[in-house]
Amino acid sequence: MLDSIKRWLGADSPETPSGYRELTAWSQSKDWTLRGVRDIDGFVIDGQCGPTPWRLEWGPSQRPYVIGQELRIRAELVVPRDLQALVLNRELMETMERAVFDQYVEGVQTRIDTTTPPEMRWLVMFPKLSGTELKALRDGYGALSNIKPWLQQWLGGELTPTLAALPSSAERPLVLMVGRRRLSLRTALPQADAASVGAWLKLFECALRAAQRVSIAELDLNTASTQPSMFPASVLPAEALRR
C-alpha cells in the first residue's frame, strides 16, 4: 500500500531549515515552548488556544501519503467517545481510494489490517457527505463521519469558508481528523518557518473552535452510522467494488 500511495503522489526530496532561531523567537513571543527533537530534523511546540492546550510537531512523516517532512497538530476535545470524523482534500481522498482498491481488490486481500492508517479505514467504513451537503467544499474536499449531524455542525460555521479559501494542491495533502476525543491536523510541510507554521496553526485553531461550538446536547447520537461507504464493515470483497 505504501508503494501504491507514493507512486500516485511522487517522492520529491524536501529541503529542511538549518535552524530554529526564527521559530524560537516567534514561539517565545506567543509564550509558547519550542524544543528540538534529538537525532532528527524536527521540533515540538506546546501552546494553547484559549484554555485548550495543543501540541504541534514538525518532522519526518508518520503517514505514507505525506512524503518528506510532515506538520502535525493535535488537541483534546470534549466529544462523544465513539465520534470519528474526517475532512481531507479531494485529491488525497481519491489517491487513498485507489490505494485501497489496489491493495484489497487487485491484491485479493479481503480484510483491512491494523497497519492501515485509521483515516484510510474510515474511507471504507463510513458514508461521505454528498456534494450538496459539502456546499462550498464540494469541489475541493471530502468529509465523512460515523455521526453525520456532528460533522455537519462542525462544517456549518467558519471552518467551511476557511477551508474553501485555501489554494488547492495535489502535492499538499491535508487531513483534519477527530478520533479518540482528539482533533488532529496533518499536512506536508517541506520547510518550517514562522509564516508557514503560523498559517497552518491558524487553520487548526479555527477547526478546534468550530468543534468546541458543536452542541452535543442537540445531536441525536443514535444516528451513529456503521453503514460503509464502499464495503461492509472491514470486509472488502472484490465484487463490492465491481457493482
Helix segment tally: 9
Number of domains as seen in the coordinates: 1
Order of helices and strands: HHEEEEEHHHEHHEEHH
Question: What Rg is obtained from the alpha carbons, in whole angstroms?
Answer: 18 Å
Shape, principal axes of CA atoms: globular
Mean pLDDT: 82
Helix coverage percent:
25-40%
Low-confidence stretches: 4-18, 226-243
Summarize the structure.
35% of the residues lie in helices and 21% in strands. The chain has 243 residues and is α+β, with helices and mostly antiparallel strands.
Would you kindly provide a written description of the structure presented here, covering whatever features stand out?
- With 243 residues, this protein is an alpha+beta fold.
- The protein has one domain.
- Helix content is 35%, strand content 21%.
- The chain has nine helices and eight strands.
- The protein has an eight-stranded antiparallel beta sheet with strand order 1-2-3-4-8-7-5-6, sandwiched between helices.
- Helix 1 (2-9) packs antiparallel against helix 3.
- The protein is globular and about 45 Å long.
- The protein starts with a helix and ends with a helix.
